[in-house]
Design brief:
The protein is of the alpha/beta class. It has one domain: Rossmann fold (3-Layer(aba) Sandwich). The strands form 3 sheets. The protein has a 6-stranded parallel β-sheet with strand order 2-1-3-4-5-9, with helices on both faces. Strand 4, helix 5 and strand 5 form a beta-alpha-beta unit. It starts with 6 loop residues before the first strand and ends in a 7-residue tail after the last helix. The protein binds guanosine-5'-diphosphate-beta-L-fucopyranose. Guanosine-5'-diphosphate-beta-L-fucopyranose (GFB) binds next to helix 3, helix 6 and strand 7.
């Protein structure tokens, strides 16, 4: 942000990313955060979005609203993953431009890159090959969103740009047993196995895919940093630079939770893409670097999980 007094609309402030951004900007001293509950603003409804922007007049928009989920949710619900993410982005970018918003930061995902992209994946790999099948719908919507920003910037001279985070985790994650991402899925499964005294836990797939994880508070710092730059590139990756296999991840979760039984795999479940390590050289050279290590971050996420479980506040959407 150029100034702490700017009117900043955070779309999706109830989600894991949006709430981390709210925490970060409040701590930085931002005084005019604009937040809207879903009952007040349905981003899938164009008239509502346009009326909201005309009424609330944000100067900066951080677009963290999305239908998100893990590999199973993506693969089994491609229609709403494409439709909702596509129309939300289209409505918000267009309404922002019509109401005079000069700065718009769109949140994408590292799954926009081709399945067989070189590793680590540079931003230049975009649209150079076929996508991973299990999240094609989400990826197509996110590519359309980042292209909207790129083309509005190119044609209208507004600073609309995008950040592509790697696999995220942290407080307020979704712990749905089937639809969550791998890390909250494993935290829940290992916690329940430990509590029930089970002697084994089965993880999905072969355990061999590699993933890179970034704590959502590190992403919030990246977002704040990107917004402080006058002329960022259209698309910027944000990753930790550190990848683990799913089995290694499960071993860390087991250790954090205190589960000492056997870890089994289930090769009938989908693995998804084999590797997805982002190249964040640009963002690092611009002055951002992640601070939260994976083990430390998982321990923090587990604390959050337990607190929410005890308070009956676990998100399972
Ligand atoms: O996090 P995840 O669902 O999504 O799965 P992706 C990552 C890997 O973990 C896959 C394995 O190889 C899964 O088979 N896995 C093992 C599990 N146990 C579990 C479990 O209990 N739950 C889940 N969910 N996975 C997503 C995309 O891809 O990444 C989204 O579908 C988005 O579009 C997101 O881009 C960041 O990393 O494969």
């Amino acid at each position: 942000m150029q100034s702490l007094n700017e009117r900043v609309f955070i779309a999706g402030h109830r989600g894991m990313v949006g709430s981390a951004v709210v925490r970060r900007l409040k701590a930085a001293g931002c005084t005019q955060l604009i937040l809207a509950e879903r009952s007040e603003l349905d981003l899938c409804r164009q008239e509502q979005v346009e009326a909201f922007f005309q009424r609330s007049r944000p100067e900066t928009v951080i677009f963290a609203a999305a239908r998100v989920g893990g590999i199973l949710a993506n693969a089994s619900q491609p229609a709403p993953f494409l439709y909702e993410n596509l129309v939300m982005a289209a409505h918000a970018v267009h309404a922002a431009w019509m109401s005079g918003v000069k700065r718009f930061l769109y949140l994408g995902s590292s799954c926009i890159y081709p399945r067989d992209a070189p590793q680590p994946i540079p931003e230049s790999a975009l649209l150079t090959g076929p996508l991973e099948r299990t999240n094609e719908a989400y990826a197509i919507a996110k590519i359309a969103g980042l292209k909207l920003c790129q083309f509005y910037r190119q044609q209208y001279g507004v600073t609309y740009h995008s950040v592509m985070p790697t696999n995220l985790y942290g407080p307020g994650d979704n712990y749905h047993p089937d639809h969550s991402h791998v890390l909250p899925g494993l935290i829940r499964r290992f916690h329940e196995a430990q509590a029930a005294g089970k002697d084994s836990v089965t993880i999905w797939g072969t355990g061999t895919p590699r993933r890179e994880f970034l704590h959502v508070d590190d992403l919030a710092a990246a977002i704040e940093h990107l917004l402080s730059l006058d002329d960022p590139p259209d698309v910027v990756n944000a990753g930790s630079g550190h990848e683990v296999t799913i089995r290694e991840l499960a071993e860390i979760v087991a250790e954090v939770v205190g589960f000492t039984g056997e870890i089994r795999t289930d090769p009938d479940r989908p693995d998804g893409v084999a590797r997805k390590l982002t190249d964040s050289t640009w963002l690092r050279s611009a002055g951002w670097s992640p601070r939260i290590g994976l083990r430390e971050g998982i321990a923090m996420a587990y604390e959050d999980f337990r607190a929410r479980l005890a308070g009956d506040r676990l998100r399972t959407v």
